[in-house]
Amino acid sequence: MTQGMDSRNRVTPDGARPARRRTRLGLFLPYILLAVLAAAWSAGWFWIRGKAEAEIDGWTAREAAAGRTWTCDQRSITGYPFRIELRCASLALSRSDGGFRLGPTTVVAQIYQPRLVILQSQGPFHVQQGDLTGDVTWRSLQGSFHGAAEGFTRASLVVDDPNVTVAGAGMQTVAVAGRHLELHARPDPVRYGTEGAVDVSLQLAQAAVPLLDAMTGGNAPLDASLDATVSHATVIGTGAVPRELEKWRQAGGVLDLGALSLAKGDQRIQARGAVALDDAHRPTGQIDLRAAGVDGLIGTIVGQRFGSKEGALVGQLVGGLLGLGRGRTPPDQPPSESGPPLKALPPLKLVDGQVLFSGFPIPNVRLAPLY
Questions:
Q1: Residue 91's domain spans which residues?
Q2: Which of 123, 139, 165 is a domain's end point?
Q3: Second label for 133, Cα 20 to 30 Å away, from 83, 278, 314, 338?
Q4: Per-position b or e across 71-89, b if 16+ CB within 10 A of its CB
């Protein structure tokens, strides 16, 4: 035993003691730190989950006090460890002027990027506004919202195979079935700070619109795109539609059509202009048009006043005078793969509930107040 002790206490010739054998604690330290980190992360996730649930409850209560009742059936908040997922078997809004109901829906936010919110829903979507009802189905739908300290930086909605039906209020049922729909919005980089202006971009591909087929005389699919700016969009909230539209009108809200494009077979229309609401809550403004191949459409409109046969003749005459027929491209005009060249049309004016084309009101067309 003395020999063992001497062996442990002996010194080297230079007077230094030999290094002690490494403890086993160093081998387990990384695992201990990992366990502590996991426990801290778990505690943080559950704290964030509780805070998110409290925020949702508080927001729902404020909305209910304002007359808007939100219902999330079978609500659950999951997503551990890196996400917060709000799941609803169905999501509904009810208020005095109508409401909507949406099928199974999930809202997701990443823990490390909480201002990016992603929406996914299986549908269907049913909405009622006064006497109007709308139903929408789709194959897939995904939305995203990029929040910011002063509003948002971008909002998007992407839908595959949308199928929309709108009916009621004594109007003819409108049905639209497309292949792909995209809607994007962002604060206008120049006008957002001063006018609360929001840029909107919409694209609809390969849409079947039976009501439009009857007007144009063909069943070619419709491709549509829109680039517009909505001034004073920030005053619009989630209240009743009439109240929100009136707030927007009184703020001087204007819908600036930067570029509207409609293409249906050989028929094409492009439009630019500005539309607002007058004191009677009807659309008012002017839209500048360029078109090709729309003589048949003009004939349909004119035929409402003069009869179908006379209307077709007048439409062909007007289309020929304006160069809107389906004839060959003029020699001085380079060929276009998308059909005849676009020609300028007289502006379309919305005045006192009437739609004026070339200074004359379009028969049987009246603009009713929106609210």
A1: 41-123
A2: 123
A3: 278
A4: ebeeeebebeeeebbbbbe
